[in-house]
Each structure stands twice: as C-alpha cells, then as structure tokens.
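Input/output pair, single chain:
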Amino acid sequence: MPRQPTIVGNPVLLVIDIQASAFMPVKAGIPTMPGYRAAMERACALIAECRRLNVPTIYFQEAHRRDMIDYGRELDGTETIHCMEGEPGTPLADAQTGRRESDYFIRKRRYSCFFGTELEILLKGLKAQTLIMVGGMTDVCVHYTFADAHQHDYHCRVAVDAVGGTSPEAHAASLAAMEYLQTGANLSADEVVAALAARAARAA
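Output:
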C-alpha cells in the first residue's frame, strides 16, 4: 500500500486523559516519564490550534468508582489506585486544555477510548476518517485506543511530542508499534498543525 496522506477526509482530535494529575507534582498510581508535563502542555497548544482550525475535539476522562468495582484487571500490574472519582487528580484539566461545556466529552472505565463507550457512534456522526491522538499514557490508553481505531479502519495519527508514557522506553516502544500498524502515524505537533492548516486552506 502507498503511504497515506497525513489527513484523510474529516479529522477529529482525541484528547486522551489529560486530567488534573498531569499538572500536579505527585501523580498517584501511575508512573510518568520525564518531560510528561511538558508533553501535556504541547498537547494543550495543539488543542488550541485544532479549535482555531475548526477540528472537532473529543475529551476523554478515565474515572473509576470509589467502590472499585470497575477497575477489573487494571491493578494486576504496575499501576496502583488511580483516576478514582472524588480524588483531586481525576477531573479533566479544563483550565489548561480550554475545554468548554459544549465540547464533546466521554468518561471511560477502561484504557481504550472505544471499550464500553459511545465513541463509535459519535465518530460516525462526525463522519470522522482521521483520528489525531494526544494525551496519556502513550503505552496504555493512547496505544490501546490506537489499536482499536486501527481495527475500526480509521486513519490514526499520534502527535509524538504531545503524548507521554510511563517511561521513556515504554513510550518509544509504543510509538514504534503504532507506526508499524500505520506508516506515517507518528508526527510532531507542528506537523499535525501544518497538515490541518493546509487542509483548511484547500477548503477555503
């Protein structure tokens, strides 16, 4: 197959789990790589550019009930209690991301943004073809969302400097795995903005 264009058809930005904890000194339950906060700040800048270019944006929040009934197997590995409802780090970082009440929002109980959510219905309504992903974690929620989106036949793009993982090694390995699935998936935030701006200019 020839390499696909950066933006195919209608793009949608997926803002994955940029929660208050990303901007707090202690991130309970999940390790983060050095530079994680800086990556989230670049993601926020990209969100603003997408808004300027009229790209639909969907915000996701991982959140778990306080009785822990919906953690499933999430606590079997390295992660401890995280994203629990009522904790200060769990709400979305609205002040940093600029999220508005009118923006699309989906709460999820699992890593993938597709699993057990209304995302597929929303994407069909938006006639989405290219999904651009920012947020965290590269090797967990971003990676699993990418894999599900790939299997739903979306064109997937990841702003590599606007996502952050649990470690540099896990971050790099997941980016490589996503690029393996779709050549050209890995882009800088600047490359994403340039491609979106070129699309907007063509449509003007």
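The longest strand covers residues 155-164. The chain has one domain: 10-203.
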